[in-house]
Amino acid sequence: MKIFLPYIFITSLIFIFSCTSPEPTLTITDSLHDIEILDENHAIVYGYGTGTVYETQDGGETWSHLAALDSIYLEQLQFLDEKHGWICGENGQVLLTYDGGKTWHSNPPKPSKGKDKNMLFYGMLFETSRKGLVSGMELNTKERRIHKKLYRTTDGGKKWEDLSERIPFPLLNLVKPPGGELWGTGRGIAKESEEGWDILYMDSTRKINQIRSVAFGNNMIMAVDFTGHVLRSIDDGANWSIRQVTRNRLRQIKYLGSKTWIAVGDTNKEVGNLFISQDDGTSWETSAEDYPDIHRIARWGNTIWMVGKNGFILKQKQNELID
Length: 323
Known about the structure:
- It is a single chain.
- By secondary structure, the protein is an all-beta fold.
- 1% of the residues lie in helices and 45% in strands.
- It has one helix at 318-321, and strands at residues 32-37, 43-47, 52-56, 64-68, 74-79, 85-89, 94-97, 105-106, 119-126, 132-140, 145-153, 161-162, 173-175, 183-185, 188-193, 196-202, 211-217, 220-225, 229-233, 241-244, 250-257, 260-265, 274-277, 285-286, 294-300, 303-308, 313-317.
- It has a four-stranded antiparallel β-sheet with strand order 1-2-3-4, with no helix packed on it. Strands 5-6-7-8 form a four-stranded antiparallel β-sheet, with no helix packed on it.
- Strand 1 (32-37) and strand 2 form a beta hairpin.
- It starts with 31 loop residues before the first strand and ends with a helix.
């Protein structure tokens, strides 16, 4: 199988985008850590470590500055509609917008202490503009320990309920499939139940390191980790098969339909960071293209978007992704 991408927006090579006149041409050089697609033309990204938020309203042809947040590392971005969005990251920051990302308001779980440099939020999942979760860890430098953290709000972040004692380990990602239970990943894979959280997978040898993404499709579950493994279950997480497809970090996996899955990540150890399976994970093919680190994938209809290091942005029709 040959994987090719006939038309793309690869901004890591040129990064020339036109802003609305009379502003000069916008060049994005930030490492982009997440992307939200609001419609077929409207998308929002942000710079990892710069706090700059960008948007396109013409399908990626041009980009413009939307907002400038603190120069901190922000992890996850989620928009519920054109107006309401959330973002979380380091320093215990949780921010929300009511105007499509032009202005952001800080509503963290510990507002009385202000910024908490030892609090890191990696996971986030909002079901409505008022009801949502953030998860991650708090670093205790004196004890040299990491404390797991999970908070829930039902009023848009004015108040937060501490659910940290319920989770088995720090959750780096939160996912809830349609009509299903809440799942979390980190040192292992866990699922929320009426009694608490059930650990569905945990590697005692720690060869499986930082499970950063889990996805659902075709009556199976797949996850990826920072040591290049793909984990696969066909019985709702009771048993897992493990396959190492690369030595690189893998950051995200998505199901595209028709037994097709895509996994992406970094190039920290070897060439190749985009992988596709057309047989539900039995075999994987590596793209021949040499891309910068890919941090996130998003999908709108049959169009796939990817963002990553040094301003990398790629847009591709799904049916043209594989030949």
